[in-house]
Structure formats: C-alpha cells, structure tokens
Amino acid sequence: MELDSMTKGKLSNKEMPDIRTIYKAFDFATSFALKSTMTMGIPDILARSKEPMTADNIVEKLPCKNPAAAAGYLDRIMDILIVPGFYSKTPVSNADGKSHKAAYGLTPVSRMLVKDDVQFTLLPIALLHVHRVFTDSFQHLHKSVLEDRAPMEVALGKPFYEYLAENQDVRSTFQEALSCHSNYWIKIIAQEYDGLEHTKTLVDVGGCEGESLKELVAVHPHIHGINFDMPVVIQNAPQIPGVDHVGGDYFASVPAGDTIFLKMVLHNNGDEECLKILKNCYQALPERGGKVIIVESVYDHDSKEDEAQFVKYLDVMMLSVFLNGRERSFDAYKALLTSCGFGDCKLIKLSGGVTLIEAYKY
Ligand SMILES: C[S@@+](CC[C@H](N)C(=O)[O-])C[C@H]1O[C@@H](n2cnc3c(N)ncnc32)[C@H](O)[C@@H]1O
After folding, report:
1. Whose Cα sits closest to atom 20 in ligand 1?
2. Is 142 a residue of the active site?
3. Ligand 1 atom 18: residue of nearest CA
4. Domains, the chain, ranges and CATH?
5. What is the DSSP-derived secondary structure letter of residue 202?
6. How do residues 10-56 score in pLDDT, each as one tens digit?
7. Which residues does the entry assign to the active site, renumbered to this chain (predicted)?
8. pTM for the whole thing?
9. Which residues line ligand 1 (CB under 6 A)?
C-alpha cells in the first residue's frame, strides 16, 4: 500500500509536526524525578517545615556526598515537577536582595506522599508504580500481542505471584502498596456509601485478611461480616469483632449472605473467570432482593476523558502483569452481570475517583 504524503516526506517544515509532541508520550523523566524525591523523603522534609524550603535548605537535611553541587542538581529535579503540580515553587530573595532562589512546598498531590501521614499516605502505591519489577515488565509489553505472554512473566521468567512467593522484600512492598490503596478507597466507601443500611450478612469475596470488613462493620455495627479468601490467606487473618473468616475457592462456591462485596477481585480475572465467580455469587444470594457490590475503577459514557484515560492506564498495568486481568467500562461489567442473571445495575461515583457497581438478584 502507498505511504501517505506525510510519511513520504513531502511536507514543508511548517507543515511538519512538532518533534516535542512525541516526547510527551515518553515522559518517564517526570516519573523518575518524582520517584527520586520520594526516595529522598522530600515530601516529609517539606511537611516538617513551616516555610517553603530552598534546595540548599533541603540538601542540609540529606546525606549528600557533595552538598555544594547537590542543591543545583536538586533544583533541576524539582523544576520539572512544578508544572504537573507535584510541588509548589515561590521565589525568595538572596542575601544581595536583588536575585532570587526557588523555595519549594507541598501541593495537595505531594501531601499524599508524606510517609508519616498515617491516614492519607499513598507513598507505597506511588513507589510501586515505578518499581523496577514494573518498569522491567513494560519493556516487554509488545510480547502480549506478539507472543500471547504476560510481559511481567517474560521479565521475571515466571508468573508474578510465583515470583512474589519467593521474594519477601518485593512481596512486602507489593502488599503494603495494595493495602494503602485499599485503605484509601474503603474509608471513602465506609463514609459515603449508603447502600448497606438493610444488609444483615455481608460476604467479602476475595477479602484478603478482612481489612475492608473491619472498616465497614465498625461503621455499620448491625452487619455480620464473612470474610472469604483462599485457606492459605485465611490462616493468617487476625480476629475481627463482628467478622467470621471462611477459607475456600471462589471458583467452586462462595458463602451465603444477603449482600456480596467484590473489591478489586474481578480486575485480576478474564471474562470467563469473572462469569464463574459472579455465577457463584448469584447462587449464594437469597432468591429475592440480594445484591452484589463490585468495587473497581470503572468509567461510563458520562465520565470525563481523563477519568476514562486513568482506567485505561490501570488496564495496561493489568495487561502487563496478568495478561487476562483487565479493567472494564460500566457497559462491560453490566454485560457480565446480566448474563449471570443480575439486573438493575447502577454505577455509583464517590469522592476521590472511587467507583462501585450495585446489581440485584430478582
Ligand atoms: C487483588 S486482591 C484484592 C483483595 C481485597 N479485596 C482488596 O480490595 O484489597 C485479590 C484477592 O483474591 C484472593 N483470591 C485469589 N484467588 C482466589 C480464589 N480462587 N478463591 C478465593 N480467593 C481468591 C486473593 O488471595 C486476594 O486476597
């Protein structure tokens, strides 16, 4: 087939696309500049200061081998993080009263990266996204298409969970990151979601060690929680008032309850596996009025472009790790739910980009 005129090089210089536009797709310098500030604990250093800090002030708090040069390097790293909104920058006068230096402060985004902020820190999940295991896996993304293999498995030489089982440090990093993400979501759900008022027995399918139920039962003490996960996970689960732990396999069956909670479980699975899990959930609900609540990152026709783009970003992460695991649109979840017999599917959007789907058994 003929190349188009642009590809054949028949455009004038003025008609040529700006070379800088392609660099936007490869902006890993911003990701790693942010990573380097997280690694040096700069969000915590800024959080402890009453005033914005110059690079010289920050460097005084760091074990730099060459402090004289370090502030200059740090200014350059901080500078590309200003426009995307990770840090603020204000001018402060030098001793001569004529020239200025930059002083840096936290923004609402970097405030979430303060390690010591126990309620809101998202530092572990932010560090996970730039962890070597993930960045190495992305070098093989094309092999999903060409070789039908999970890029992560190509990079590690084995499936991700097998690798985690053998590597305690990466496993802890991964678990800490997932639980900080999960805590953030569940706190918002516990405070804002009003669909649990009539629930008597809430079954958390794939509930890990019961962290979600702990939070939900504390806010809704009338609920009896059943935390369901693989026996190997359940055997380490701590006792939680109002919650019973049950071990099993969600592909075989799930415990009975009038409400079933599925948080960040379906996105690890392909459509066929999701159908098996959802059919078992359907079976476990009472004949009338039972409902399933799916908590995942979801977009629909009303979502803004950047909200849908965020879900697509997560989807490529899932592709790189699990190949068949995927993020889905509301329409895709609705199709899975209705083919298992569920009806009246509703997408609920809460603060902080938290989304959940309710669907009923009639
Ligand atoms: C991504 S984690 C989600 C954990 C939790 N729901 C949350 O939001 O943090 C998926 C969970 O599913 C559990 N799981 C995986 N396969 C399972 C199976 N066949 N039966 C029961 N649980 C399973 C895992 O042990 C893990 O706890």
Report:
1. 249
2. no
3. 249
4. 22-111 (1.10.10.10), 185-360 (3.40.50.150)
5. E
6. 788 888 888 888 888 888 999 999 999 999 999 999 999 999 999 99
7. 267
8. 0.86
9. 178, 182, 206-208, 212, 229-230, 233, 249-251, 263-265, 268
